[in-house]
Design goal:
The complex is a heterodimer of chains A (about 475) and B (about 425). Chain A has about 475 residues and is α+β, with helices and mostly antiparallel strands. Helices cover about 20% and strands about 40% of the residues of chain A. Chain B is built from ten helices and 21 strands. Classes of the chains: A alpha+beta (about 475), B alpha+beta (about 425). At the A-B interface, helix 1, helix 2, strand 1, strand 2 and strand 3 of A face strand 1, strand 2, strand 3, helix 2 and helix 3 of B.
Chain lengths: ~475, ~425
């Protein structure tokens, strides 16, 4: 080995590290904050464990377990931020000093943070079924059952199953006197089937996730069966011709649409220092018809985007982004709230201790209206019914979101299955083109959100069935 | 590392310890000014064992957490997949230069000056532009040892510079940007800003394309955001082994235009995708994937290669502490001989695709792509007529690249993983509002 810093085992470190749990480290940091000259300092320390099991076809492909302990220090001096993250819980004083030094180098203005009352709380965890309490044997047996169902069909070439769970304890502390301990368990499962025939390859999948409850990944046998059949049916499906359509979205895809089409634009870090965007995003501006209401909230129990305090120690709140078609709110960190002179909303989140918190969505949804599914499709002569999702992405003004399942709508009825489509829109007119909202709100708990190099963050989104006029669809 | 290996070797037939430690310093600019400096220090130790013929795997961030690490690897090995491979024994490695000591002398002050210089150049051209930028310095140390005596290690430097300008007029938003990376530090930012200025000039006017099939030029960025995803999936040895790659059964057969050649090349000095070995201590090598349109090989890690009765091509890479799997190191498309300007002047009515949004979210295994033209230009009578919006492009790489019009000589790196020229396709489906 050429590099001794990698291979040398330091026997002396063992003694120190025995004490270097995150509780002890948090006390050392609190002391270190006191002697620093900064406008504000905070730290997050975290310890956790992640397990994963993946299958590809009949084979269990990989299984593993990871433990991680680490933390970070973030300092603010004259409007400039410094940030240091680490796995080594020794020499914490130096890490605080480095973060402050970096912040001082950057800072040339005045620090602005929305005021907050210090909180000291160990938040009790609300675990329904702890995934770490379920044995590997039982997890594997459940996944085997799903895999057997998918692989039963001869034209299913392979399956792809990705299961993971994690438990994490986080301690947040700040120079303002806050000390918050929180715990969470995340569970995520993706099931996918790949069908082939004469060189054609088609796939279908579903993503499921949950917070503090292993139960969400149980009992998916019927869904596994359906997705295998759908992958097979896609082999003989036709392509949609590219162009504009009246499109009906199911609650899952409409949730992805809500997240991409509007959610990201409501994140105040895009807006707060951008005068032109601030004018575009003035509160009170009309974005949709009077029956459109969009909410983001981390306060709903059991949803993936939920928590009590965000990663700046701010209590989560329920926020209307659009009410009766008008822009009424946005998502904030302490800094964006202060600079826009609005109240903090508790939306500063980081995917791990390796990253500083940035403004993120939590659980975002369109509130239900009164239309039944039949009302929504009944008057469509020719259109598309798009269900389920592959993904979505936004550049603020324009966005795309892709359906996992697409059907033609003919004379008010759902007709033949088509190949998957990618839909696109422009936030300033697509929301106005929503002309019907169903009564059947459902939340999509799969997948994760990526922003600023931080991915995947547990989020959920949802909606009732919605109908969009003049939606641009890619196709051949 | 030796201690972990020796403990694991006592309870398993074979063992491998992989350790990566890194220090990353991003200097970030928001709204045209310096905003944030970070230092990220991290260590991950991964233990892979073969016990009773099955693979067990565990990772930790704490180097003194040996007992727990070994116990987790043993626990998972009970359920692990059968190991079909053995770890590589001691061998020699190609010499690939990937560390420039100059990187250690770069200060955050210099990095912040570089970022501010890029922003100032763009603002001077277009005063209402709002820029974000990030200049990052990384030093990574990697070490791998296994119970067969195999050992490898290297130190890599990386320097990246990124800038994006946002131009808003009413509700119209334009994003133009550029990304640069190397193992050498960057001192001169002129080539980065020149590229962004070129995009700003082209985007001055707006244009509309009809909904029909049109000739399309995919620039290097355009290829990275549309055609690269399906290619990476199709040549993955695992996809091939499972029978879900459309080209799996076509080794030695012509599938693409005979001017198209693609290789995986981790041996180019001072590139981020380069190194003496992969993450399983298998020596790096050049792997030809497409040779003049013919499928010439696929890329493999140890386990997939053993199952496919092939050999590892040195493509066993780990992402975020995960187990090694086949992944390209650095894809290189061989340039052609047509100047970019000649491609543009050849088109009467067509499209230039610079950035496709959402294109890799469909059925990429089947070769399909479909996306919104986030940045692209209409070409009219051999001239760039203006930026297009609300426009979708869709196609299938196996149809599109079977016969291309020309391949450009304007080859360049896009991000750290792909080097490609522009590719000019005769007919691609375009839909617009």
């Amino acid at each position: 080995m050429g590099h001794t810093e990698l291979t040398t085992y330091h026997p002396s470190r063992k003694l120190v590290s025995d004490m270097a749990d995150i509780d002890t480290a948090s006390q050392q940091l609190a002391e270190a904050f006191k002697v620093q000259d900064a406008d504000y300092i905070e730290a997050r320390l975290s310890e956790g464990e992640t397990s994963h099991i993946t299958y590809r076809g009949r084979q269990l492909e990989s299984i593993g377990r990871s433990t991680a302990t680490g933390g970070n220090v973030r300092a603010l001096v004259k409007g400039g931020w410094g940030f240091v993250s680490f796995n080594d819980l020794n020499r914490l004083q130096e890490k605080v000093e480095l973060a402050v030094k970096q912040a001082r180098f950057v800072g040339k203005e005045e620090s602005q943070l929305a005021p907050v009352e210090p909180v000291a709380e160990a938040v009790p965890s609300t675990i329904i079924e702890d995934p770490s309490g379920v044995s590997l044997t039982e997890k594997k047996q459940l996944l085997d059952e799903y895999n057997d169902i998918i692989c039963r069909y001869p034209k299913i070439q392979t399956s792809m199953i990705n299961y993971s769970d994690s438990q994490r304890k986080t301690i947040f502390l700040s120079s303002a006197g806050s000390w918050i301990e929180q715990e969470r368990r995340d569970v995520a499962l993706r099931l996918a089937a790949v069908a082939t025939d004469n060189g054609e390859v088609q796939q279908a999948g579903i993503s499921i996730g949950g917070l503090n409850d292993f139960g969400v990944v149980r009992g998916l046998h019927a869904e596994a069966e359906q997705l295998a059949k759908r992958a097979l049916d896609l082999l003989s499906a036709s392509h949609v011709k590219g162009g504009q359509y009246t499109v009906v979205l199911d609650p899952i895809l409409a949730g992805v649409f809500t997240h991409e089409a509007f959610g990201h634009l409501s994140e105040a870090d895009f807006v707060y220092e951008n005068e032109q965007l601030r004018q575009i995003m003035t509160l009170g501006k009309t974005f949709g018809e009077s029956y459109l209401n969009i909410v983001d909230t981390a306060t709903l129990p059991g949803l993936r985007g939920s928590y009590k305090y965000d990663d700046e120690g701010i209590l989560a709140t329920k926020n209307y982004l659009i009410r009766e078609g008008k822009l009424v709110g946005r998502l904030h960190s302490r800094e964006t709230a202060a600079k826009m002179n609005e109240a903090p909303t508790g939306n500063a989140r980081a995917i791990s201790y390796r990253y500083p918190p940035i403004v993120r969505m939590t659980n975002t949804y369109i509130e239900p209206g009164s239309a039944s599914f039949e009302d929504i499709i009944g008057e469509i002569k020719e259109g598309l019914y798009a269900k389920n999702w592959y993904g979505g992405v936004t550049s603020m003004e324009m966005f795309t979101f892709s359906a996992g399942e697409t059907y033609m709508i003919r004379d008010g009825k759902v007709a033949e299955l088509m190949r998957p489509v990618v839909l696109t829109g422009n936030v300033f007119d697509t929301l106005k083109n929503i002309d019907a909202i169903g009564n059947d709100l459902d939340m999509n708990q799969g997948g994760g959100c990526g922003k600023g190099g931080q991915s995947p963050l547990p989020c959920s989104n949802g909606s009732p069935h919605i109908r969009i006029r003049n939606c641009l669809v890619g196709g051949r | 590392m030796e201690e972990i290996l020796s403990r694991a070797s006592k309870i398993a037939e074979e063992a491998e310890v992989f350790m990566v430690s890194s220090e990353e310093t991003p200097v970030e600019f928001e709204t045209n000014r310096l905003k944030h400096i970070q230092t990220k220090q991290g260590t991950v130790i991964a233990l892979r064992i073969i016990k009773d013929g099955r693979i067990g795997y565990a990772t930790t961030t704490q180097s003194d957490d040996i007992e727990n690490l070994v116990a987790n690897a043993v626990a998972t090995s009970e359920f692990g997949t059968n190991a079909h491979f053995t770890f590589p024994s001691l061998t020699s490695y190609p010499i690939v230069e990937i560390f420039d000591p100059e990187i250690e002398k770069i200060t955050t002050e210099q990095m912040s000056e570089l970022g501010q210089r890029m922003i100032d150049t763009l603002i001077k051209h277009t005063p209402e532009l709002i820029c974000e930028a990030m200049v990052t310095r990384v030093i990574v140390n990697v070490g791998i040892i296994n119970s067969r005596g195999g050992q490898a290690g290297y130190r890599q430097s990386a320097f990246t510079a990124f800038i994006e300008g946002q131009l808003i007029r009413d509700t119209d938003m334009l994003f133009v940007g550029e990304h640069w990376s190397s193992c050498h530090p960057l001192s001169e930012s002129g080539s980065i800003t020149a590229e962004v200025l070129r995009q700003l000039e082209w985007a001055r006017e707006q244009a509309v394309t009809p909904t029909k099939s049109l000739p399309v030029i995919f620039t290097p960025h355009g290829i990275a955001s549309s055609l690269a995803g399906p290619m990476i999936a199709a040549f993955n040895g695992k996809t091939v082994l499972e029978g879900s790659s459309p080209i799996g059964g076509k080794l030695g057969m012509p599938v693409f235009d005979k001017r198209l050649s693609l290789r995986d090349d981790p041996t180019i000095d001072y590139r981020l995708g380069s190194g003496p070995c992969d993450d399983e201590a298998v020596p790096s090598e050049i792997t030809p994937l497409i040779t003049e349109g013919i499928i010439s090989s696929f890329y493999y890690d140890l386990q997939t290669a053993a199952r496919a009765k092939s050999r590892s091509t040195g493509n066993g890479h780990r992402s975020q502490g995960g187990q090694p799997g086949p992944s390209p190191s650095a894809l290189v498309i061989t340039p052609g001989d047509t100047a970019f300007e000649d491609m543009v002047s050849d088109i009467k009515e067509g499209l230039l695709v610079e950035q496709l949004m959402g294109a890799t979210q469909g059925n990429i295994l089947g070769g399909d792509f479909s996306g919104n033209v986030l940045l692209g230009y209409k070409v009219e009578n051999g001239q760039i007529a203006g930026r297009v919006k609300d426009t979708m492009v869709a196609g299938n790489i196996y149809e599109l690249l079977k016969e291309v019009t020309t391949i450009g000589n304007d080859t360049r790196w896009v991000g750290s993983f792909l080097s490609t020229p522009s590719i000019y396709c005769p007919s691609v489906s375009v839909a617009s509002k």
